[in-house]
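Predict the assembly for these three chains.
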Amino acid sequence: MRLRFTGLAAWWVQRASAVFMLLFIVFALVAFWLYPRHSYLEWRSWASSPCVVMAILAFFAALLLHMWVGLRDVLLDYAKPAGLRRLLLGGVAGSLFGMAVWVVLILARLQT
Amino acid sequence: MKLSISRYNPEHDESPYLQDYEIELVASDHMLLDVLLRLKQQDDTLSFRRSCREGVCGSDAMNINGRNGLACITRTSTLREPVVIRPLPGFPIIRDLFVDMTQFFKQYESITPYLVNDESPPEKERLQSPAERDRLNGAYECILCACCSSQCPSYWWNPDKFVGPAGLIQAYRFIFDSRDRATEQRLDDLGGDPYRLFRCRTIMNCAEVCPKGLEPVRAIEAIRLKIAQLPVHQGGLETHPPKSPK
Amino acid sequence: MARSTRPVFLNLTQIRMPVGALTSIGHRVTGVLLAASVPVGVFLLDRSLQDEQGFADVAGLLAHRAVKVAMVIVVWALAHHLLAGVRHLLSDFDVGSPLRLARRSAWFVNLGGVAVALFAAAALS
């Protein structure tokens, strides 16, 4: 039974993360249109409030997972030799993880 | 009518090339196959598969003006000239318009295209209600002509790993057959790896070119929902009036 | 006589691509484009939150003509990818799946993405 879910897990992750990001983007667009932040201080204080930090982290988690499934699909389709494919997938995974760390650092720095 | 037909003889050609033909149409040339058969009188080395001449055997599937179709049901009156005829995309070319269908049929065989039921056989038939039988509509009509799989980009990139729309619509036909008892194994087989079913990106080229008006993409969606244990619509698959190449 | 390698017809410029296929390839291309612009976005986020100077730098950068053009392209990519994605989501759950409806939604996605890009271009200029 577990066997069945390998391809399916990726499909669910892609769909769920997409829906989450869609809602977030709509919300963010409306928020910025109604309350644009023109100065550094306004921008920084908004970004460092706990709710926003949580939301940004959640957004990037969804984004990086979604990117992983999408880019993996592209590589599965076009990178035929298994060794090359594993290498490229590893590269993509590494870059995505790196970006996750970067975002966490950016948000952590705001708390200082 | 002016035609440009892909020619290739492995004995002395490096690669396929287009050869121009011109022929006077007569009243009986309703379908492209009629024209091709008369062309053979001009040039008897021109090779292509054909059999039933009425759109049920699937032998004469070819790429006509960029779009796959069956030559025997493609009307000559609506074809843009010069009519460019090439073999089915992505399939190895044996000669002229003959393509190697081995891989295609291997994929079909891989989905266990027969009813699996080890229960003791009943007196007469294994019964099926009309509603249960209706679930096979839109899938059983597939003639395995390969128009769909050879127009599917996902199948082009991985014909050995992705089953393809034709194989998958046949898989649907058995998964949703109430008399079959191998549903779990079929779903495990298709859902267990990222290639067999999940390469489908719902591009929908399959539905666009099917000469029988079937929609393999819907069959694949239904199987995906079943793997995900989500509700699948009752009743058969929708079909549409097929569009011929123009 | 079996040949070890037979030729294959796969000249994409000579194969008709129906409207849905264009939506789909656009979905993939815009996906890759967006993926490439995420690191840039994270960098801009970083810079703009660093200090006053960083914020001013980013604001200055975004005012450049060339950068605005790039932004319009990214907005188009996002719009197309998003609309095509929603179309996929709906068809996964059997909404708008029949071919005639799918063709119409494909046109809507293709044109919608361009419309959003034009709107963004107007808003940014």
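Residues 19-50 of chain C form the longest helix (32 residues). The helical segments of chain C are 19-50, 52-63, 65-92, 99-124.
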